[in-house]
Design a protein that fits this description.
178 residues; alpha+beta; Maf protein; five-stranded antiparallel sheet; 5 strands; 5 helices
Length: 178
């Protein structure tokens, strides 16, 4: 997504465990993961702008991360069928040269259509849900599961681009349209 803005990007995996953390709500969990990822990579990358994010699906206060297997993906999708949930995406940006830091999150409400067990099984069989919070990707086949959203589409995709661009001046950067 950042390259769509004309930015040169190098992906550096953090290897941070994105597992559950007792005592953290879904939004706080996304913030914890994003911060941990950014801090790990910032420790390895001097003189760089580090950007890390994490997305968590919030079903009535329960965090739905990435499913461990197809059975869990089916269960997650069935639990979201015909109802609203909230997608929280937190991101952290660190300028390692100056120490300047942004840490924030955005939330968007998503409503799923009523999904039949057959539709859920066929979607899970595509493999797309396996690396996605809440077991779906709105930018792919999962778009067919969504009835409507209230908020920023990019937050649901996994990175609130508009908010990021508007906050770049806080780090001393300006993104100019070309």
């Amino acid at each position: 997504m950042l390259t769509s803005l004309g930015l040169a990007v190098r992906v550096v995996p953090s290897d941070v465990d994105e597992g559950e953390r007792p005592g953290y709500g879904p939004r706080e969990l996304a913030a914890l993961h994003a911060g941990a990822k950014a801090d790990v990579v910032a420790g390895r990358e001097p003189h760089a702008l580090i950007v890390a994010a994490d997305t968590v699906v919030d079903r009535d206060g329960t965090a739905l991360g990435k499913p461990r297997d197809a059975r869990e993906a089916v269960a997650m999708l069935a639990s979201l069928s015909g109802r609203n949930h909230i997608v929280h995406t937190a991101y952290v940006a660190i300028d390692t040269a100056t120490g300047a830091r942004i840490a924030t999150s955005q939330s968007t409400t998503v409503r799923f259509a009523q999904l039949s067990p057959d539709v859920i099984e066929r979607y899970v069989a595509t493999g797309e849900p396996m690396d996605k919070a809440g077991a779906y990707g709105i930018q792919g086949r999962g778009a067919a599961l969504v009835e409507r959203i209230d908020g920023d589409f990019y937050t649901v995709m996994g990175f609130p681009l508009g908010d990021f661009v508007r906050r770049l001046p806080d780090l001393g950067y300006e993104l100019v349209a070309r």
